[in-house]
């Protein structure tokens, strides 16, 4: 049973304490499929996913993430990579510098919402040593690390606290 997408958006939040229960392989496959359904400029799909479940490698990734312990603690970590060259072929510099990052961010968000819908906890990590992360997952030089997603089951108390959001009226201007 999955949640309604609007419920998933309201309930999704960053979790930094996970249980040791592994993410089932079929569930992980569904999350990666959800990521691949994201929109992308020219439908180029300039993403690549490194799924990390090795404890030692997760610890090294946590160090590369400036000591963010949830990277080592989560049962599964997905390093989301962009392929700027793929976007550059059709869109030039703007594709390489912007579109591929937007596209991989959309893929990451799809993964996060799907995980919440399936009852998993997540944390989107963006603070890391990009070059070191690339080396740790043995990615080719053409790929760029954009995000790291921690996946698992929450081990946090007060997991149901609602997050505050700005009012739509405060962040919107309608032009007629």
From TrEMBL:
<dbReference type="InterPro" id="IPR000415">
    <property type="entry name" value="Nitroreductase-like"/>
</dbReference>
<dbReference type="InterPro" id="IPR029479">
    <property type="entry name" value="Nitroreductase"/>
</dbReference>
<keyword id="KW-0285">Flavoprotein</keyword>
<dbReference type="Pfam" id="PF00881">
    <property type="entry name" value="Nitroreductase"/>
</dbReference>
<protein>
    <submittedName>
        <fullName>Nitroreductase family protein</fullName>
    </submittedName>
</protein>
<feature type="domain" description="Nitroreductase">
    <location>
        <begin position="10"/>
        <end position="74"/>
    </location>
</feature>
<keyword id="KW-0288">FMN</keyword>
<comment type="similarity">
    <text>Belongs to the nitroreductase family.</text>
</comment>
<keyword id="KW-0560">Oxidoreductase</keyword>
């Amino acid at each position: 049973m999955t949640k309604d997408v609007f419920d998933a958006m309201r309930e999704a939040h960053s979790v930094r304490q996970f249980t040791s229960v592994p993410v089932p392989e079929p569930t992980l496959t569904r999350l990666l499929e959800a990521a691949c359904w994201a929109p992308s400029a020219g439908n180029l799909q300039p993403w690549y996913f490194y799924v990390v479940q090795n404890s030692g490698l997760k610890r090294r990734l946590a160090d590369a993430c400036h000591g963010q312990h949830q990277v080592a603690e989560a049962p599964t970590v997905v390093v989301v990579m962009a392929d700027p060259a793929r976007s550059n072929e059709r869109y030039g510099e703007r594709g390489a510098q912007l579109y591929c990052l937007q596209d991989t961010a959309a893929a990451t968000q799809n993964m996060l919402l799907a995980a919440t819908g399936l009852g998993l906890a997540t944390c989107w990590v963006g603070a890391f040593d990009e070059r070191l992360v690339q080396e740790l997952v043995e990615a080719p030089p053409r790929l760029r690390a954009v995000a790291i997603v921690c996946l698992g089951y929450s081990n946090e108390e007060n997991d149901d606290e609602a997050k505050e959001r700005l009012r739509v009226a405060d962040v919107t201007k309608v032009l007629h």
